[in-house]
Amino acid sequence: MASKPTYTASADVLAAKQALANAESSKPAAYQSNYNDTINSLLDNILNKEKFSYDFNADPIYQQYKDKYTQQGKQAMADTVSQAASLTGGYGNSYGVTAGSQAYQQSLQNLNDVIPELYNTALSKYQMDTQDQYNQLSAVGTQEDREYGQYRDTVGDYQSDRSYYLNKYDTYYNQDYGQYRDNVSDFYTDRNFDYQQSRDSVSDSQYAEQLALQKAQDASNLAYNQSRDSVSDSQWQQQFNYQKEQDAASLALQKAKAASSGSSKSSNGTDKLTSTQSSTLKAKANSSYTELESYLSTLIDSGYDADYLYNYAETQLGIDIEALATDAAKQAKEESKSSSAPTTYNEAIEKGLSENILTNAQFSVLKLNGAASVDNINSYKDYLALMYQNSKKGVFNNK
């Protein structure tokens, strides 16, 4: 006989496993930003930027204007004094000094008028510098997003490749191992077949000897069972008829009880079932006749008219109470029959005993030969009863 197969991975499985290992080894490293420090620096400059302020004395442009207007004022004052002196024959006078002073002050006033313009220029420059910082931050952030997106694409490609090679490996392995398991199954099938053939060769000779005896015994048992079934059916019919009489009497008693209560209404003043009661009645009927009968009795005891309930159940809910009662009685009969010990080999098999129990012919042969296993058992019927009791207890000794 061939030896049991052992599993060895095929070349396809080994190649797929290596391809998966190569794919896993190419996993991208953790992302490293090239712009993280730059982004943090720009963001720090923006968040910590000093608020705008303007000191015209510190503005070099203002100083240029100041020098210019001061020089112009002095020149205007000198020109005005000189002109006034020419009018008086070259001699200075108070008018010339006053007029010159006014010309000087007017030049300085023009200098003050330049300050708002210089303020706005400085503010505009501050705002432009701030916007430029935001623009730099945006440009660097865009580049950072682009490079991170490229990195994520690389990670996605790695994951896709890994999934592809993993699925490929699983497919090859499952096919390969599945074939191995088929080979093992074939091995056990062949071994069992060979063993069964050897057992069949032994059983065939025994079977031929016992077959004739078994046929005769089965015929006898069949005739006996048929006679017992006719008696059992008659007894069951009598019991069923008696039960129907009892059910009719019980129903009449319930009706009389309901009539004597002085009302066919329920406690809420109506003889109509609620939707909940109707659903419950239907559910009880679907469950079992016993539950239906119990629930009907409960409703009758609570004040419902029996005729109304039975009529409502049949016409409104489609419940055939008589048919349910008949089926329940038949089921009780079958359960009663199944609970009794078998009297024939076939009946024993139907009741779930092992097919390896002794046939009547086998029992007779052992009995004639004085076998110890059956020495204390008087008849084949007693043997079947003993086997049936043991099966109920979970103890089974066929032979």
Features:
399 residues; mainly alpha; 76% helix; 0% strand
Provide a short characterization of the protein structure.
This protein is mainly alpha-helical and 399 residues long. Among the domains are: 11-188; 340-399, no CATH class. The chain is built from eleven helices and no strands.
Describe this structure in words.
The chain has 399 residues and is an all-alpha fold. Helices cover 76% and strands 0% of the residues. The protein is built from 11 helices and no strands. The chain is elongated, with a radius of gyration of 57 Å.
Question: What topology emerges from the helices and strands here?
Answer:
Layout: H1 11-25, H2 36-47, H3 60-87, H4 94-260, H5 275-287, H6 289-301, H7 306-315, H8 321-338, H9 345-350, H10 360-368, H11 380-393
Helix pairs in contact: 1-4, 2-4, 3-4, 5-6
